[in-house]
Design the sequence.
């Protein structure tokens, strides 16, 4: 047991002596967190719309004014021919072109319906969808108003109405940062812990220093623990800093038990670092470790529910997430931080992570060979 | 020669040891014994199979076939027990360059389970002998190569192993430094540590009690330097080596 | 010149012989495209919900049937009390609880109005909103069908056209994004790590004292990754076109030029990183950390740049992938030519020159 302490001491000295790595370990993740969480937002801010009003009636100008008053839109009025419209869209000068055809108002009065043409530059898919949704809301409410005015009743209602009232728990203002911050934090903690430990082990192979250890009677699991613990602790430190940043910069609420969070994160890191050390044990160079780790990291991140909800994946892919460590921790952290879930609410995750972790740890110890 | 007693049981027993890498035979049927207290040399050109042999005996490499016993333990199943009883200095300097001299000592002493008290005593003694007292807290990476090698050797015998294995220990340094390095080796041998050394420097072979000459994975001659010189009618080991090479052709 | 060719050849065989690396270098783009194409969708299917029906009459049963047969939802539990909601959310599987008020059918008939409360787990705000919209849509559709003969007067209809991606195919987005990411990964990351490796192992010094000139060494190191990147770019465009139907409306020549320019930029960036990094670890963290995440998040690949806070919009201007992705979409989706994308080309070229100049400067400083 004392052997492990000597190994830990050695690793810590080496980490803190490496001046090039210290800012990368402790500062870069926080900077990244600040930038990336602010960057990841689906709340639309400014859409450039161009209104081509060929009707110039009261109804069309009032709708234009209404759009203009919305804080989401930056509106320009222009009289453009169809080819000019094409051109400004191709150039990306505007995101949306709304055209009121001639006879828009008279159609509405005479035929009970009229069409407005909306062209949306959809090369940015999600922005285009959001723009459309906002536009429809504005047009819809304007439509109700116009209908009431024309029909002379205060508000038009269909005969029977079921109202569906949303209530958003745990994040009533739908703050996207509360959703992103825990996710980004998981990724940063993972990258730091995983790569520091796995590259460290294989680097000793590359530099030849591992030989000097391999001719000693050191126990294999001592060695693997010695390669894991320092980086697990460093990753937990990063988690702590990250949580503080999330609290201060994004006002992330903290409903759960902090201890629960650390128990789960430690278990998770035990698992992830074991996987990393296993990859290291079967590789000869840092490059190989990097490639293999990156390969799986990309797949794990895409499928983890960081950017897109896990529920949007087909069932087979959701089942595949059983072996995706990142999926577990992102889900767990969001549950603990935002909803206040405790260990008892997530016994299944607790058991899975423990078994999975022990399995990968055993694999890493088994595959680490003191002979070449 | 008073240190060596051939009547005693050998500390290293090697019988028909073979190592193949694919179809390439690196070591072909090696058979020899090393006796306690001996300085045993493995002589040969680069690629003769010396390093492969020493790595197998140390337990760093799995043999393909043959028998191997070190300090009374089996080379296949009791590798970890062997490791308790040996020291090793690799061809490539493999202490931690980003740790200080003392930190390296502390780490390896700790792994061998040497107590803090003994460690501190022995560290002082060792650094004094090496005249490195003032560099105790300097990073190993900044030392000149000759010092690095002396340090690596001193650390390899810090836990007083029964046998120490030295793989090309004095490569790349000037003859004078090599001379002082061999003083250290001789001193260790007098303390009762068996020395197993590989080299391609012929003059170093003269310092050994017995020498095995290797060529293309085989041992082609094994005896004391004096006996070898007599047999091949040469006045130096260089001459012996040349004659053997010529005979092969 | 012969020396240089020989060196390049050595580097090539070195990389191409390593099958594991090759599998991964070509595997990453393919797997990533497949994941985005078949696994990640913008539509939610089979979200787990719970229902708390205080009324349990024939109308609520009809609505429940509609909701559960829509394909969007899976019933995880029927709740009996309000206080069961929080615990079930805390477990994390259930995303939404639908609550029908007491005497639902009765109220609907007598007062013409009844309420359904949708309680969503908004720890994922997007999903929460999306699920609410689905639910609301299904319920409104139900009432509308019930009164099918009824038409709404005075209607303003929107004729919406999503230009350049009429069917809102996801691949139109992720193919350009994947391309930017993969090329950055292979070109910048691999190059910086390979060169840092030589430095770490001490072999760079051996190369530097050899008759090879420093630029030749760098060229030799970079050439294989240039080729690999071009092949990968081709694979992505080909798969995107054939498998996912992403069009190439612009000129292939312009497309190729743009891709090669971006690769050159990424390679220069890789060289620059390697002049700063002394170990593979540092090179990996700088390129993996400082390049990868911003490439995904600050380039408009997933999150629209227009939505970002102003400071980040400014920052995104310094992200090369932003200009590449934008130009790529213009060429592939809009069919634009150089007359439209010249600003992007200019910016990417300037970045390349800047990175190269800085590397040369750093390199000279080191030697002096």
Sequence:
């Amino acid at each position: 047991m004392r052997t492990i302490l000597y190994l830990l001491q050695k690793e810590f000295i080496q980490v803190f002596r490496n001046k090039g790595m210290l800012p990368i370990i402790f500062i870069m993740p926080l900077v990244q967190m600040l930038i990336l969480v602010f960057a990841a937002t689906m709340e639309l801010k400014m859409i450039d719309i161009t209104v081509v009003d060929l009707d110039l009636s009261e109804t069309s100008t009032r709708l234009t004014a209404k759009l203009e008053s919305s804080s989401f839109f930056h509106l320009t009025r222009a009289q453009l021919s169809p080819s000019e419209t094409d051109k400004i869209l191709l150039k990306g000068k505007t995101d949306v072109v709304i055209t009121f055809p001639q006879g828009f108002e008279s159609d509405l009065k005479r035929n009970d319906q009229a069409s407005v043409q909306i062209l949306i530059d959809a090369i940015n898919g999600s922005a285009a969808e959001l723009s459309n949704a906002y536009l429809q809301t504005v047009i819809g409410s304007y439509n109700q108003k116009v209908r009431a005015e024309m029909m002379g009743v205060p508000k038009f209602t269909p005969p029977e109405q079921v109202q569906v009232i949303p209530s958003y728990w745990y994040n009533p203002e739908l703050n996207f940062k509360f959703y992103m911050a825990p996710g980004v934090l998981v990724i940063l903690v993972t990258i730091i812990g995983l790569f520091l430990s796995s590259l460290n082990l294989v680097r000793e192979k590359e530099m030849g220093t591992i030989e000097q250890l391999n001719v000693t009677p050191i126990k294999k699991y001592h060695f693997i623990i010695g390669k894991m613990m320092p980086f697990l602790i460093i990753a937990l430190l990063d988690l702590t800093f990250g949580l503080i940043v999330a609290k201060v910069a994004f006002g992330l609420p903290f409903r759960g038990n902090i201890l629960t969070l650390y128990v789960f994160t430690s278990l998770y890191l035990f698992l992830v670092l074991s996987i990393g050390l296993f990859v290291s044990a079967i590789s000869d160079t840092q490059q190989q470790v990097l490639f293999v780790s990156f390969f799986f990291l990309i797949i794990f991140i895409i499928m983890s529910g960081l950017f897109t909800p896990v529920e949007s994946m087909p069932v087979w892919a959701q089942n595949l997430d059983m072996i995706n460590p990142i999926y577990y921790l992102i889900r767990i952290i969001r549950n603990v931080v935002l909803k206040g879930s405790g260990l008892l609410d997530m016994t299944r995750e607790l058991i899975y992570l423990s078994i999975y972790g022990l399995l990968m740890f055993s694999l890493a110890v088994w595959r680490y060979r003191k002979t070449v | 020669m008073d240190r060596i007693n051939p009547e005693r049981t050998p500390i290293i027993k090697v019988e028909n040891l073979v190592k193949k890498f694919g179809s390439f035979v690196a070591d072909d049927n090696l058979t020899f014994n090393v006796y306690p207290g001996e300085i045993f040399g493995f002589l040969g050109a680069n690629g003769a199979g010396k390093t492969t042999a020493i790595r197998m005996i140390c337990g760093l490499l799995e043999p393909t076939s043959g028998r191997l016993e070190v300090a009374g333990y089996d080379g296949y199943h009791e590798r970890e027990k062997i490791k308790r009883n040996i020291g090793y200095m690799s061809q490539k300097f493999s202490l931690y360059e980003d740790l200080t001299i003392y930190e390296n000592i502390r780490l390896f002493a700790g792994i061998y389970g040497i107590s803090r008290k003994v460690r501190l005593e022995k560290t002082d003694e060792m650094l004094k002998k090496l005249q490195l007292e003032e560099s105790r807290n300097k990073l190993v990476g900044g030392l000149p190569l000759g010092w690095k090698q002396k340090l690596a050797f001193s650390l390899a015998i810090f836990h007083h192993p029964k046998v120490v294995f030295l793989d090309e220990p004095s490569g790349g340094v000037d003859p004078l430094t090599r001379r002082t390095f061999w003083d250290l080796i001789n001193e260790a041998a007098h303390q009762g540590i068996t020395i197993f050394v590989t080299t391609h420097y012929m003059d170093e072979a003269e310092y050994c009690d017995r020498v095995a000459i290797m060529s293309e994975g085989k041992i082609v001659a094994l005896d004391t330097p004096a006996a070898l010189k007599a047999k091949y009618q040469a006045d130096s080991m260089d001459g012996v080596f040349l004659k053997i090479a010529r005979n092969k052709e | 010149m012969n020396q240089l060719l020989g060196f390049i050849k050595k580097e090539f065989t070195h990389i191409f012989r390593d099958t594991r690396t090759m599998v991964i270098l070509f595997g990453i783009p393919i797997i990533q495209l497949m994941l985005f194409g078949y696994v990640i969708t913008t539509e939610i299917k089979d979200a787990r919900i719970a229902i708390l029906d205080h009324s349990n009459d024939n109308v609520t049963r009809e609505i429940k049937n509609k909701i559960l047969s829509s394909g969007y939802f899976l019933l995880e539990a029927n709740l009996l009390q309000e206080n069961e909601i929080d615990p079930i959310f805390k477990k994390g599987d259930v995303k939404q609880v639908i609550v029908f008020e007491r005497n639902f059918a009765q109220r609907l008939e007598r007062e013409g109005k009844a309420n359904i409360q949708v309680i969503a787990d908004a720890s994922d705000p997007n999903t929460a909103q999306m699920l609410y919209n689905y639910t609301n849509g299904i319920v409104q559709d139900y009432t509308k069908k019930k009164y099918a003969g009824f038409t709404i007067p005075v209607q303003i209809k929107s004729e919406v056209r999503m230009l350049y991606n009429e069917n809102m195919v996801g691949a139109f987005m992720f193919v350009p994004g994947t391309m930017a990411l993969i090329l950055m990964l292979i070109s910048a990351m691999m190059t910086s790590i390979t060169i840092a490796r030589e430095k770490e192992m001490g072999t760079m010094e051996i190369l530097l004292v050899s008759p090879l000139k420093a630029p030749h060494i760098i060229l030799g190191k970079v050439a294989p990754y240039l080729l690999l990147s071009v092949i990968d770019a081709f694979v992505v465009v080909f798969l995107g076109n054939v498998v996912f139907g992403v069009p190439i409306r612009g000129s292939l020549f312009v497309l190729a030029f743009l891709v090669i320019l971006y690769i050159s930029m990424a390679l220069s960036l890789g060289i620059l990183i390697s002049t700063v990094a002394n170990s593979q670890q540092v090179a990996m963290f700088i390129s993996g950390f400082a390049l990868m995440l911003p490439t995904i998040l600050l380039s408009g690949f997933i999150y629209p740049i227009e939505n970002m806070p102003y400071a980040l919009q400014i920052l995104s201007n310094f992200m090369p992938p932003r200009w590449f992705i934008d130009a790529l979409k213009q060429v592939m989706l809009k069919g634009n030519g150089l007359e439209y994308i010249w600003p992007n080309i200019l910016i990417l070229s300037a970045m390349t020159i800047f990175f190269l100049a800085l590397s040369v400067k750093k390199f000279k400083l080191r030697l002096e």
Observations:
- Chains B and C do not touch (no CB pair under 8 Å).
